[in-house]
Amino acid sequence: MDTIASLFSFITTPVSWVIVQFHSVYGKVFGPDTGWAWGLSIVSLVILIRICLIPLFVKQIKATRAMQTLQPEMKKIQERYKNDKQRQSEEMMKLYKESGTNPLSSCLPILAQSPFFFALYHVLNGIATGKTIGVINDSLLASARNAHIFGAPLAAKFTDGSSKVAALGATLTDVRVVTAIMIVMMSASQFYTQRQLMTKNVDTTVKTPFMQQQKMLMYVFPVMFAIFGINFPVGVLVYWLTTNVWTMGQQMYVIRNNPTPGSKAQAAYLERLTKHVTHHEKTRSRGEKAIVKAIVSKGRDRNEFERKFINSLTKVGLVAQADGTVVKGEAAVESEDGTPTTAAPRRQQPKRQTKSQRQSTAAKSADDSADNTADDAEPKTSLSKSDEPEDAKPATAAKKAAPKPAGGTRSKAQSGQRKGPQRPKSPSKK
How far is residue 184 from each of residues 175, 194, 241, 357, measured CA to CA in Å? Predict the structure, then answer.
C-alpha cells in the first residue's frame, strides 16, 4: 500500500493543503488538537471531491442508461453465439464500439477519486510515522498525532501493535473496536448501494455480461473493503466511509427521481407522479415535465409502466402533451400498440320489472290502443267544401272502399304465372 501511495505523491501537497485549510476553520470551533477538527476536515475534503466529480457521475448515469438500452441486442448476441464464447465476445465489443458505450463506465467515479484516496493515505501514513509531508509542518504533525476519534488516534490501524498504539496515546482495545465498526459500516454501505442499484434500477431478468458484472461488483467491493480496511488508518476509514455514504445518498436520489426505464423504481415513481398530477391536474416542476415529455415522445415504444401512466391520466380526463404539460381532454385509453383509443360508453342495462309492473304496463298499452281504434272509427266532418267535381266523388269513394289485403301483406303471384296484369285466356277449342 505504501508503494502504491508513493506513486500519487504528486497530489499529496494539494490534498494536505486542503486538509490544513479546513482544519484552520474547524479548529477555531472545536479546538486545533481535537479529533472533531481533523475528522471534519477529512469529511469536508470528501464532500469537495465528490462535488467536483458530479459531472463524471452524470456521465456514468448516461453510460449506464445506454447499457440498459443495449440489453435486448446483447441478449440476441448471447443466444446466437451461445456455443462460441470467442465470437460472442467479439460481437459484444463490436456492439459497444458502435453504440459508444463502455461496460466499465460504472467504475469511473471510483477510478477518478483513487488518486485523492492514495494521497490521503500517504499523508496519514506520514502522520503515523512522525514525518512531515506536504504543507503539514511539525506543529500540525503534533496536533494530528494527538487527535483521537472516539478514542482511536487518527493515524492508528487495526493491525498496529500495542506498543505503537500506546505511543499514539491510546489503547489497543479502543483502536480495534473503532476500526472494526468503521470497516463493517464501510462494507455494508457499499453493499447496500450496489444492491439497491441491482434490485430497483435495472432489469434483473436479462442475463447479460453487463448484469453479471454488476452482480459481481455487488459482492466483490464489500469484501475488498473489508480486507483492505484492516490496513487503513482511522483517517482513511473516515474518508472512505464518508464517500460511501455520499454515494448511497446520491444513488437513492437518482433512483427515486430519475429511475431507469422499465425498472421497479420507475413503476414506483410513475405511481407517485400519477397521484400528484391527477391531484393538481398539471405538472408542476421541470423534472416532472421532462419525464412526461420523454414518455409522450416514445409513442408505441412505451413500456407497460409508461402505458399505465398514460391510461391513468386519460381515464380521469387528462391528456399528456408533447411539451411535458398536462391538460384536460376527452377520456381515452391507450391500446397495447401505443395508439390512444376513445373509450366507448358503457351500455345501460334496463331495470328489471316485477310481474305486477309488467301487467300494469301491458294493460295500459291495451287501453291506449283501444282508444286509438275508437278515434279512428269516428266519422270526420269537414266544414270546408270539397274541390273535387261531382262525378269524381263516386270513384274516389269506391277507391277508398276497396278492401285491403289481410294482415297488410302483398298478394303474391301464383306459381307459374308472371307478375303484373295477365292477358285473358282464349277459349279452348273442342
Answer: 14, 16, 10, 80
CB neighbour list of residue 250: distance below 8 Å, 6 or more residues apart: 50, 57
Q: Cell 409508461 maps to which residue?
A: 306
**pLDDT tens-place string over residues 361-420:** 776 766 666 555 545 544 444 444 444 444 444 444 444 444 444 444 444 444 455 555
C-alpha cell at 267: 413503476
CA–centroid distance for 213 within its chain: 22
**Cβ count within 10 A of residue 212:** 10
Taking residues 62-71, report their average pLDDT.
Answer: 72
What CA dihedral angle connects 154, 159, 162 and 166, to 10 degrees?
-10
Cell of 386: 270539397
Query: What's the confidence (pLDDT) of residue 21?
Result: 93
Query: Rounded distance, CA 160 to CA 155, Å?
Result: 10
Q: What is the mean pLDDT of residues 129-156?
A: 85
Distances (CA, A) of 84 to 47, 78, 81, 93: 47, 9, 5, 15
Q: How far, CA to CA in Å, does 230 sit from each of 26, 170, 428?
A: 28, 17, 134
Give dist(CA 327, CA 103) in Å, integer. Answer: 41
Q: Distance of alpha carbon 254 from its chain centroid, rounded?
A: 10
Q: Closest Cα to residue 42, out of 176, 154, 125?
A: 154
Q: Give the E-state strand segments of 318-410 in sequence order.
A: 318-320, 326-328, 332-334, 340-342
Q: Which of the 8 DSSP states describes residue 429?
A: P
Q: Given this model, what pLDDT does residue 258 score?
A: 81
Per the listing, cell 460504472 goes with 106
Cβ 237 vs Cβ 226: under 8 Å = no
- Nearest Cα neighbor of 197 from 209, 210, 181, 186 is 210
Nearest-angstrom CA–CA distance, 222 and 401: 109
pLDDT at 292 > cutoff 80:
yes
Cβ contact 126:16 at 8 Å? no
With a CB cutoff of 8 Å and minimum separation 6, the contacts of 265 are 200, 201, 255, 256, 259
